[in-house]
Amino acid sequence: MNIVIAGAGDVGYHLAELLAQESQNITLIDRDEDVLEMVSNRLDVLTICGDCASPNILQSAGVKKANLFLAVTTSEKTNLISAILAKKMGATKTVARVQNQEYIEKSAKANFSELGVDSVICPNKLAALELQKLIQESYFTDVFDFEGGKMSVIGLTLEGCSPLKNKTIRELRVSSELNGIVRPIAILRDSSTILPEGSTTLKENDHVFFMTNDRKKLPLKRYVGKENSKINRIMIVGGGNLTYSTAKMLEKDFNVTIVEKNKDRCNFLAEHLQNALIINADPSNMDMLEEEGLEHMDAFLALTPNSETNIITSLSAKNHGVFKTIAQVENSDYVHISQNIGVDTLINKKLIAANNIFRFVRKGKVEEIVSLKGVDAELIEFELHRDNQLTKHPIKDLPLPKSVIIGGIIRNNSGLIPNGDFQMKNGDKVIVFAMPETIPVVEDLFR
Q: Rounded to whole angstroms, what are the CA distances from 71 to 21, 56, 225?
């Protein structure tokens, strides 16, 4: 696939890095020669220095033959203009990154589509939605929904008191508490990914990902050993765009306190938020956070621009008895160690945005793609759009690699956990867990 990426910042570089590993033909455009030199030294991609909104630069980048054009610079106007031009010049599919959340509303999307922008993504909105989900499902460290929650993947770390500790996967499968609503699909142990087999024994501190067709069922929460701790009071440190988007969603249902050191930004937040309490102070000052009631908070969200500040303040919040801690990090390597350092969840906006974009890269009719934190694999939701060998035999008889798991099926708007005797049908939406080396095989099967 020929892919042109406009913008070599965090999101653009991360996408180029992921795509280059898959031997895609990547061309990266940016104005900064030093950045492009760094990229050339690290990645096998073609780089072009210039304005990605220039027709001449786009022509040099080969957009005429591009299967996919990704405009992910920090300027939404540049992204929209370059995506429109790229489409007019022959790019098959165009995607633009935006900051204005009005642009992702249905009517705005339709207007952009007419102009040539096939899809718009807003990293802040995507990250805010994930934060909202993590607060609402406070007992889990990861929550990924498919088809509006008809199927979900949840993640949690097994604590010493967990009823799952020292049990085998086989024992879990025959548990009467399961009732067909949950299935382990991956285990992260000491930074290594384990695909669960019948004889696999779960251990303390394992980070386990489960597929479920109803994450809200109380039996599931009891089964995985998590008590339902109700969240009411939330402290957010940092007052940037992500905080604003998140607080806008949360302030209707929770008591939200925001700590931001920039006075002008505090005035903006106070003017545009209805119910949140805004405090003008340094978020890294733990004495001040204590004075503002840190130990009485149920959740702590560290969303400053500084990853280290976010991690340290989250750890301090945990030490003060805060039930749920979430920290934003800029370095994607940090995300892989969240379960080992004591912070409940680490989020990274560029990884969230990349997951959203990656569905345009995969072959077959792809509805959704999720990368599990720290796990070297992908969850891909395919739609079976024709009868083929996948619909003619039970799952146990299909030519699937051992490292591929059919985790869930959505049929007639209902989520199903399939066993080996289950047979798929045309129209099913199939959630597949696959290691990187097996993804081309899976793509061919679902094409």
A: 20, 16, 44
